[in-house]
Structures are given as C-alpha cells and as structure tokens.
Amino acid sequence: MLNVRESLGNAKDDPVKYDARQKTVIEPYRLLTTRSKFRGSLPPEHYYYGLPGRMLDKPSGGVQKECELMVLIESGLISPEQYRGAEIYPEIYEANVEVLKRMHPEYPVDQMLHFGDIIDVLASDAGKSNFRPALVNLDTQFEPPRAARLLGRTLNILNRVDAVEHPIVVVWNTILRNKRKAVDKRHEWKAVKEVFGADCMMQRSLLLDGKGRSTTGWKQVRKEVVEYWRDEEGTRFTLMGTIVFVRRGEAIKDA
Ligand SMILES: C[S@@+](CC[C@H](N)C(=O)[O-])C[C@H]1O[C@@H](n2cnc3c(N)ncnc32)[C@H](O)[C@@H]1O
Question: What is the CATH number of domain 6-33+46-249?
Fold first, then answer.
C-alpha cells in the first residue's frame, strides 16, 4: 500500500503521489506492452486520455512539476501531442490552458486540453478517423456506483475500437474507504464487483458471463490500493482502489 500524504491538486514535489502514478499507470501499461516495439511508450499517433486535474503551481505561477501531464512526458510514456485531457470544471480547465500555453508555447495545448466530460470528449473523438486510444486513465475520486457508470460508458466507446495491433489499457479508480469525522464509508472489492454486475452500462460493455468474466474481451489485470489523502492527525483519510483493464482484439461492431 502506498501512502499519499498530499491532498488533491497539491502534488508538487510529492514523491508518494508520484509513486502512485508510476504504480497504477506507467508500470502497468509497460508490463502489458512488453512486446511492443515502442519500448515503454505509447505507439506513435496513439493517444492517452485522462483527467489532468490542477496543473497550476500557485506559489510559482508555473506548471506543477509533478502534475500528471509532466510526469507522463518525463517518463517517456507519451509525447505532449499524444495527451488528451478533459476537465469538467471551467476554472480548472482555464487555469490549465493558461499556464500550459504560457510555460510551454511549443505544445499544441488546444488539442491536448478539453473542457467538458471525458465521455463527451471520447465520444466526439470516436467519430474521427484518428481515434486511436491506447491508454485511458479514469482518475476520479468517486464511490463505486458513480465510478462504475463512468467506466461502463468509457468501455462501451472503446469496444468499437480495433485493438489488434495495440491493446487498449484502461486504468480505473474508485473510493474503497472514505473516513471523515462523522462517516466511515467502506466498500469491499466484492461489493465493487457487484456494482459492475448491476450497472447497465457495465453489463453492456463487459457482457459478463455467469462467472463474472467479460465476453467482450476486457481482462482485469491488476489491483492496487492507494491511500490517497490523509489529514495531519491521521484520522480522516481516503483509500482508493485501482483496477487496470486491457482489451486486445477486433472492434466489436455491434457493441
Ligand atoms: C483526481 S483529479 C485528477 C488528478 C490527476 N489525474 C493527477 O494524477 O494528479 C480528477 C479531476 O477530474 C475532474 N473530473 C471528474 N470527473 C470528470 C469527468 N467525467 N470528465 C472530466 N473531468 C472530470 C475533476 O474536476 C478533477 O479535476
């Protein structure tokens, strides 16, 4: 288990949050694509879809050195033009666009950052000829039912994509424990699996058989538990669980 001591959006110089991204995104992608000739990077002209969160480092006015985008670029997993980030809050989106354009005028920022729901961004890109998602990172902080709804819709779009030459990898997070003063909400993995079985989009996307296996080809390959946030006294904290999904194979035409 990893300990992530800083709160969301405040990841600057936070080695533990950095480790969490390595463990839940970068390492799993590389492990799943060891035979790729692109050696630990997304294939050229293939894309990463994610939720960048806050990128502005308020004290310096620059880009947070350890925000998702910078870590992925520095790791060599992607180049800037392979990044597609969606943000639902206008203030966060606008601040991200402003700081990235100012600090990195060489980046195609308008192609990299998108305002709105990631499902709308994926659905809109899915209609274009260059829709080649290789890695989708649904890094939200939702309880299992809401997180599963987002996952089901995402997989449903990705089912229509050809993944013969390169697999599609999806990293999915959910809250497993949310401890506050008055509440202590826990979700066991077993309950998370039950949510998958109950959500209509998950049912449609995974087409689970009687044993809970996906007949549309999605395999669940890794599960990490990350302590995402803890207050100073250590009495309030959030525990996140991560599952990595991978699908290889032809597009499912009637998905
Ligand atoms: C946990 S943060 C992302 C943190 C970031 N990935 C990192 O590693 O530092 C999630 C962000 O996604 C945004 N968000 C949540 N649901 C979204 C959705 N469906 N579409 C677009 N943005 C969303 C939130 O407003 C928030 O800024």
Answer: 3.40.50
* Centre of ligand 1 from the C-alpha of residue 140, in Å: 5
* Domain extent listing, the chain: 6-33+46-249
Alpha-carbon span 151 to 172, nearest angstrom: 7
Integer Cα distance of 42 and 26 in angstroms: 10
From 165, 189, 190, select the one nearest 247 (Cα to Cα).
165
Q: Where are the beta strands (DSSP E) in the chain?
A: 2-3, 47-50, 56-57, 62-63, 83-87, 113-115, 133-138, 163-179, 184-186, 219-230, 237-249
Rounded Cα–Cα distance for residues 113 and 156 (Å): 23
| Nearest residue (CA) to ligand 1, atom 3 | 53
Beta-ladder partners of 135 = 48, 169
Full-prediction pTM beyond 0.70? yes
Tens of pLDDT along 169-199? 999 999 999 999 899 999 999 999 899 988 8
Nearest-CA neighbor of 126 among 159, 78, 170, 150? 159
User: How far apart are the CA of 35 and the centre of ligand 1, in A?
Assistant: 31
